[in-house]
Amino acid sequence: MRGLRIFPVRPLSVRTLAGIWAAGILLTWALLVGGWYAAEVELSTISDRVITDVRSLGEAHRLESEILSAAREHLLWETTGEGSYRGSSLEHLRTAEHKAAALQTYVTSREEQELSAEILEKLRSMHDEWAALPEGMISKDIILEETRQTDSLLALVAQFRNINKAQLDHSLESTESVHRAVT
Questions:
Q1: C-alpha span between 91 and 99 (Å, rounded)
Q2: Closest CA to 106 of 96, 97, 115
Q3: Termini Cα distance of the chain
Q4: Per-residue three-class SS string for the chain
Q5: For residue 9, which phi and psi values (nearest 5 degrees)?
Q6: Exposed, middle or buried by CB within 10 Å (0-12, 13-18, 19+), for 69?
Q7: 42-82 tens-digit pLDDT
């Protein structure tokens, strides 16, 4: 018995081998282009997230600076009684409110949405309370309460910043994993 052949195999011609070789090269090229395109799309998405998180961190930093400036000016007004400090503190609070509202454009999660809304609400409440304070010397208890409010507000901004920092770190890790997959 010369061997059992279930499927008879004919010898392949050079033309057929060249066609198979060309199809293999074309398929390999298509897979490489498809992989490149998928990696490019993923890196573009990650890049957009990084840009959003960096801008959000910058805006949160500027918001924190405005809150600290408002608190400083307000304490100066409370200790000296000079009206210019009061006006300056209220102006810093208004600017902080605008910056807190601007955080909405950088929100990418429900937790960030809730934090930014809470920050804005506390700023508006603080502005209303500070604007309603009577002229003259303020009691030590009111000053301590305002300091606690400011600290609470700054803690919320820090929490917002930490969320964005964690998102930024995650995006950078994702970039590294795409880099490892491509190379």
A1: 12
A2: 115
A3: 52
A4: CCCCCCCCCCCCCHHHHHHHHHHHHHHHHHHHHHHHHHHHHHHHHHHHHHHHHHHHHHHHHHHHHHHHHHHHHHHHHHHHCCHHHHHHHHHHHHHHHHHHHHHHHHCCCHHHHHHHHHHHHHHHHHHHHHHHCCCCCCCHHHHHHHHHHHHHHHHHHHHHHHHHHHHHHHHHHHHHHHHHHHC
A5: -110, 125
A6: middle
A7: 888 888 889 999 999 999 999 999 999 999 999 888 888 88
Asked whether 96 and 63 are in contact (CB, 8 A), the reply is yes
pLDDT tens for 116-130 read 999 999 999 999 988
- The DSSP secondary-structure symbol of 136 reads S
Structure tokens at 132: 């309603």
pTM across the whole model: 0.77
* Buried/exposed 159-169: b ≥16 CB within 10 Å, e otherwise: ebbebbeebbe
